[in-house]
């Protein structure tokens, strides 16, 4: 793909480019055979969004998150969500310090640059809301005082499929806080074989060397926002959005915020692919993870949201 | 893809509606078996869908049994009726095994064929409307088989959507239909010149037997059409189209005699008026003679003019044929040899004694004055006889019964009895059969003579020459003055109520207009219509050209309309890119509408590796212009356009 785009070299500094490519390659070496999902995780990172990984237990959700954490030179916290987890357990509490005679805020695990929120749908809605609010506002408010979260602030949440016992499904309005929702699915036969024969993932992760720091990420985010989206591409994005709003099987189509998210994700995807302009292929690559969890179905069809979102891609022409 | 229940029901309904157009002329066993099979299949699909398609051990015997049953019924598989029964049977069998969308498509296409076959039987207004109505569910069902654009994978297409798009489509097809109707070059014979009962329509034959004309007189099909060189037809009372002269009567039937085929002697015929030139287009009769206006001045090629001034050809007329003829209305025909005189006086021995008696009495009374005898006979007819198409049955001495008892009949009775009466009175007389009258079609400037215009009259040897006497005119003058329709209209006795009569007249008018405008829109009418636009004698090539041009214009307009939105949005770059995509599609790799440039390039390069380098350059240019810039720059677009035109997909990639 890159060979055909030599006419317009990416304006990325060479070092940054190398770091990014190395980071992607490194995560791929841990999470086998999931190049697309790994790519999307980086899309989420560069688009300044949060990532939701939804899949069955044991397919590598946490491994992906850990690999990301080990590759990025960021402060990392992991929160295992359980049904008795309280909001204060994640955002922190104010405790009265007798010697200073005042309340002192003790930050919770949310105060990290990369937060892995494991199995968020096992927590009660109250705790879920606390997390999602923090994600949206980039700050938490305790006892009337706001505390800014660190930058970059990147949440990777995992959740089990909604039909498993003991889950509290996230409401649609809160799913919207996640830029992308991806699923990992079972590995391919070759990937699984390599998984079974090679070393323990934990050990591999422990040996990883971070290759991107916060400053790199900040620069990449700025570059991603500057990726060219031409008039033709905007036409295409608008065509997709319009279709979700007119489709018989969809009750509520994509919001303007979803449209912005789609374009931003596409830009990040282009940047990772080494371009400083967006192609319809970028939009197609991120459309399902961006759009599927934001669609509200009308019940007229039998397809689930992912299948429907895939079908929508076949109905909008690229000119 | 398997049919869902909605589609299955629609399919059955559509095909059943098609079958209703044929129910009237199918054998009863076919109606019953068809309904039974369709019904059984419907019940099975409705309540036992898990049984799937009809198994082969049911289908095979039915499939094999069908032609056997048709042969048992008709003795053949060929011909209109056996053929359509076979087709309908096949349609029902196809319907019964339809399980998938593909089956349904085949069944519907075939149903369209069967539907059109209904027009081979009847082309009247009701049947045409029936067929037109049955077309709609057929297309609705076809539409319902296709997925709607907005649900590519599944979901039931609803009836309303299918109906709406079908009606829109059919409406959009109307202009093209009209163009085809007007400009499509007409074949002299209908395209579906199926060997039907039409072939048995011999029109006026070379005999005149009781009841023969009554059959013809209710037959509205055209016998022939005439165009006059002067553009104007003769007066209605002068429109006698002479077919054959019948000389011999055996008590029941009039036939020709050998002497009638003798050639005309020089000097026997004197023409007293200017000849009328005309073109006569004769429907196939399977007979050998023509129906010229009164006395033809010459015989066309491959025809001979006989002594009785009839035109008889060498072989039967089995196709529509056009003849250039010329006739005179004023003439003097002489040449009554003793042998011919004898033939014109012969009567069957031992028949009709009372008629013989009356003839002998007149002979004595008027002393052999032929003129007065004729007048006496015509007066008798005028005073005592009535015209009816449903005369009472006559006995052995038919002419006696008619003349003295029933006194009601039509041209056949009048001309037969008149000739007999003249012969009994010693006046040479003969019967002429042919047509009288005709409907002047002002639009097409031609005279249409129908089978119902069939007529029989007499020629009597008066004052040393043959003269035409029409006894029917003495009884019912409007038969000659206004035509057979006027003469026969009094026959509708069972429609006494005035409102019913009005209604019937209106209906008849509607049917008449349907016939005139649609069914009988043939070559002549087509030319008549085109003449209004300054096209004289349009030939096949010109018509094809006009048809092609008109339909092309319409199609281009439709195309423009359909593409208008896209065209408005596209620019030079788009056009060039689409051009490139079309050429690559021609080389074997078509771009899907939703396919982006890089994905497409990858696919194309796999198929056309030899052009890969060039293609990568082209696509890189396109991608840069289209996506790397907020708006493509004009110079680059033109350059890309030129590059696309230079590009050769290097032909084959095999």
Distance between the termini of chain B: 33 Å
The termini of chain A sit apart by 20 Å
CATH class of the largest domain in chain A: Alpha Beta
Principal-axes shape call of chain B: elongated
Per DSSP, the total helix count of chain A is 13
Query: Would you tell me the overall average pLDDT of chain B?
Result: 81
Specify the structural class of chain B.
alpha+beta
Instruction: Identify low-pLDDT runs of chain A.
Output: 1-10
Give the low-pLDDT segments of chain B.
Answer: 150-156, 189-200, 490-496
Describe, in plain words, how this protein is organized in 3D.
The complex is a heterodimer of chains A (319) and B (654). Chain A is α/β, with parallel strands linked by helices and 319 residues long. Helix content of chain A is 45%, strand content 16%. Mean pLDDT of chain A is 87; it is low at 1-10. By secondary structure, chain B is an alpha+beta fold. Chain B has three domains: 5-172, no CATH class; 207-506, no CATH class; 543-652, no CATH class. In chain B, strand 4 and strand 5 (254-255) form a beta hairpin. The longest helix of chain B is centred in the last third of the chain and has 30 residues, at 540-569. The interface between A and B is medium-sized, with 37 and 33 residues. Chain A: This is MoxR-like ATPase. Chain A: It holds the Pfam family AAA_lid_2. Chain A: Belongs to the MoxR family. Chain A: One of its GO terms (molecular function) is ATP binding.
Entry summary:
Chain A is α/β, with parallel strands linked by helices. Helix content of chain A is 45%, strand content 16%. The model of chain A is unreliable at 1-10 (pLDDT under 50).
Features:
heterodimer, A: 319 residues, alpha/beta, Rossmann fold, 2 domains, 5-stranded parallel sheet, 13 strands, disordered N terminus, B: 654 residues, alpha+beta, 3 domains, 6-stranded antiparallel sheet
